[in-house]
């Protein structure tokens, strides 16, 4: 049975992730991986490599057999990355994420014969004061903030419908949602719900403000940035032109909070979403790649 991490282990993983972020310019562990540091979950495993009292490397084998790993900048090129990747594979990892798709990650994956199987793009767009103007919705539709204790089931229903084919987002559980709501950054007013004429929830736009997030402002300088975290529309109302105003309503919320930049993540093969976001002025910021053994990369 896997053991939970101690408070000291937990803090050391955060320090290691911060050190890698400073060295590489990209955060090596996803929000979900960091959240799952707290989770005593049969399907989440933690691998920690200590050297001279310092955490030299960390890997997590998460749900859906996906892994993430990071080596402290002061302990690189010493074999820790390959050891952890081999260990993850031995414990059943089907794939690992390389945030930023850095040359070292690419080289490490290639050295064990793994190939990129999924590309996630991080896009950004400057926000101007004009973006905070209220958004006009088609007749009968409305937008309101999430009410904790009331809207959880509706949000989960729309999320599951909208992301039925998505490997992670479609599987968000009530427990995951409760843990997200408990995060410091959670702001119910930033979790917008789209309602129809009957008041039923038919979509949502979860905007997020992580104090550590930075992206280019209009003049190119890095400034605190909000995030278009999850835009979900019930498939039954697709094709009614609701995605653009729902997205714009989230941008307006972030701009009204004084943010001057916004980021989002989108799968490279989600052509429709990429086109929508590019039309709204988003441009490429980072690329994140998922690597898997060659046999998984090439379906038989
Ligand atoms: C990618 C990362 C995990 C590599 O960790 P590491 O401990 O330095 O890697 P290793 O020492 O085990 O290197 C194994 C092989 O990977 C390749 N490699 C690793 N870093 C490399 C680099 N900077 N340039 C070229 N090749 C590199 C080499 O083939 C190396 O073998 P060699 O040292 O015998 O030549 C580390 O750079 C890191 O934490 N990056 C940020 C997080 C990340 O990208 N994680 C995703 C990993 S898939």
From TrEMBL:
Classification via PANTHER family: AMINOALKYLPHOSPHONATE N-ACETYLTRANSFERASE-RELATED, AMINOALKYLPHOSPHONATE N-ACETYLTRANSFERASE-RELATED-RELATED
Enzyme class: transferase
Protein name as annotated: Mycothiol acetyltransferase
Protein family per UniProt: Belongs to the acetyltransferase family. MshD subfamily.
Keyword Repeat: yes
Lineage: Bacteria, Bacillati, Actinomycetota, Actinomycetes, Micrococcales
Source organism per UniProt: Nostocoides veronense
Gene3D superfamilies cross-referenced by the UniProt entry: 3.40.630.30
Top-level taxon of the source organism: Bacteria
């Amino acid at each position: 049975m896997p053991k939970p991490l101690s408070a000291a282990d937990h803090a050391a993983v955060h320090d290691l992730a911060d050190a890698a972020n400073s060295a590489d310019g990209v955060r090596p562990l996803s929000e979900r991986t960091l959240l799952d540091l707290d989770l005593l979950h049969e399907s989440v495993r933690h691998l920690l490599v200590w050297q001279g009292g310092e955490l030299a490397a960390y890997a997590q084998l998460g749900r859906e057999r996906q892994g993430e790993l990071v080596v402290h900048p002061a302990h690189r090129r010493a074999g820790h990355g390959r050891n952890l990747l081999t260990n993850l594979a031995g414990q059943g990892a089907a794939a690992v994420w390389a945030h930023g798709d850095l040359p070292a990650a690419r080289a490490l994956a290639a050295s064990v014969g793994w190939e990129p199987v999924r590309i996630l793009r991080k896009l950004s767009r400057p926000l101007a004061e004009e973006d905070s103007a209220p958004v006009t919705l088609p007749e009968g539709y409305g937008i309101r903030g999430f009410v904790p204790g009331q809207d959880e089931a509706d949000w989960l229903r729309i999320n599951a419908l909208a992301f039925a084919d998505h490997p992670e987002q479609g599987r968000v559980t009530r427990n995951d949602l409760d843990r997200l709501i408990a995060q410091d950054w959670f702001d119910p007013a930033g979790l917008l719900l789209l309602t129809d004429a009957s008041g039923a929830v038919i979509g949502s736009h979860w905007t997020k403000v992580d104090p550590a997030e930075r992206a280019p402002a209009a003049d190119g300088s890095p400034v605190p940035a909000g995030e278009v975290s999850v835009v979900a529309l019930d498939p039954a109302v697709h094709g009614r032109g609701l995605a653009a105003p729902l997205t714009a309503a989230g941008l307006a919320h972030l701009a009204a909070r004084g943010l001057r930049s916004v980021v989002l993540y989108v799968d490279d093969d989600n052509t429709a979403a990429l086109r929508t976001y590019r039309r709204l002025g988003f441009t490429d910021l980072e690329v994140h790649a998922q690597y898997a053994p060659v046999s998984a990369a090439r379906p038989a």
